[in-house]
Design goal:
single chain, 266 residues, Rossmann fold, six-stranded mixed beta sheet, four-stranded antiparallel beta sheet, 27% strand
């Protein structure tokens, strides 16, 4: 029998409105510890709204989102930040902070008012930078590094936050293919090494299929289906949700599903 700690994140009957418009409709999910979950679906299906409800950047309805079996509406921002970190889609930073400054921002939930960083905070930040291959950038201004490097720095900041759940909102959407693969492999390694749970909104279905343990397919504010990549990435589901005809084969290296010959369904 699995312990409660095996399911760090649960969502029960979650609905969310923007004005009179119902964005999320009766969402129910149970997220396992130490796994990579991708949320996929067409634009406007509610993926980012779901992620923001989980992160509490949008206030969810009471008794609908639970972190470590605790209703998130009962958690303070500081206590929430000690359990769950977020990597946003937009990582542009205009101020000339160094990479180290940015990563140390992840330690803010643990630092009291008017206190500076301790030697332990600096050690944690260094470990996070080394884990994401950004240690060599530590003294560079964040405005003077590449987009791929900046994205890894933001992941390092989330790691320095020392949470066991990480949420990512389309983390590779603005990266070239080389940096996409590099970042996805970094995240996959972190899950294995640190046993953290990652939930990520993904735009690229093939990347989601290759790197995810489980996939959540959404459409029109609802979860259409959820399961392993083979259970979710099917020609029937692609046609049903995306209105596209597709051919799906198994990747000869990973054995995961790979989508080919996509065209609009008539």
């Amino acid at each position: 029998m699995e312990s409660r700690g095996s399911y760090p994140l649960k969502i029960q009957n979650l609905g969310w409105k923007y004005g009179d418009r119902q964005i999320l409709k009766d969402i129910n999910l149970t997220i396992k510890k130490g796994c990579f979950y991708s949320i996929i679906g067409p634009n406007g299906s509610g993926k980012t709204t779901l992620l923001r409800n989980i992160a509490k950047s949008l206030e969810p309805t009471p008794k609908s989102v639970f972190v470590d079996s605790i209703d998130v509406t009962k958690l303070s921002r500081r206590n929430m930040a000690k359990r769950l970190s977020v990597v946003p889609q937009n990582t542009n930073i205009e101020f000339e902070f160094t990479v180290t400054d940015i990563v140390l921002m992840g330690r803010s939930p643990y630092i009291g008012r008017f206190q500076g960083e301790s030697s332990q905070d600096l050690e944690i930040a260094e470990r996070a930078m080394r884990s994401t291959n950004t240690w060599h950038l530590r003294d560079k201004p964040i405005t003077q590094i590449s987009g791929g490097e900046r994205q890894r720095v933001i992941v390092a900041r989330a790691l320095a936050q020392d949470t066991h759940i990480m949420l990512l909102d389309e983390p590779v959407s603005q990266l070239d293919i080389h940096h996409q693969i590099e970042l996805m492999e970094t995240i996959q390694a972190l899950i294995k090494d640190r046993n953290i749970t990652v939930v990520s909104v993904m735009h690229d279905l093939n990347l989601a299929a290759q790197y995810s343990d489980y996939i959540i397919l959404m459409n029109e504010g609802k979860v259409v289906c959820q399961g392993t990549p083979h259970e979710v990435i099917t020609e029937e589901n692609i046609k049903r949700v995306y209105k596209l005809d597709s051919y799906i084969m198994n990747n000869p290296v990973t054995g995961k599903p790979y989508i080919m010959h996509v065209r609009k369904s008539s």
